[in-house]
Amino acid sequence: MATELIAGMTAPDFTLLDHTGTPFALSQARGKPLVLFFYSENDTPVCTTHACNMQMVHTELLAEGVRVCGISYDPVDSHKAFRAKHHLEFTLLSDPEKRVFDLYNAWGEKNSYGRLIQGLLRSSFIIDAEGTIRKVFRRLNTKINAGQLIEAYRSLGL
After folding, report:
1. What's the whole-model pTM score?
2. 136 with 125: CB under 8 angstroms?
3. Which CATH number applies to 15-156?
4. How far apart are CA 83 and CA 19, in angstroms?
5. Catalytic residue among 47, 68, 120, 133
6. Residue ranges covered by each domain of the chain
7. Is-catalytic flag, 47?
């Protein structure tokens, strides 16, 4: 398991394919703040709610110069269809081997109905324009996370 990521650390770099099949490198996204959120699967009830709630605040974040990226282990084609179906305007990244999930401690052991299983550890990160993690959200309530991200971003004064 990777080192626990906390505010003040440099966000680990990675390169994944986006929903168009184009490589996206975190290091190349520097220059503007970024919200990075992890979800498991397209078109599942909780993940769809999370993504659609992120879309509701995407316009506000974009107006403040913030880029939004969601990462799941679904393939590129699935992301493309998911974006179209739910009118999502932010970038979706594909991590089928869960390498970036591991790097960001967003995959691991969790309790599910009294059983320990390997699965998504729902997480979001606010990363500043220089690539420093400014805020980490763990064990998210997907219905309120988008609003929390906006409030946290504004309170950071980035």
Report:
1. 0.89
2. yes
3. 3.40.30.10
4. 8
5. 47
6. 15-156
7. yes
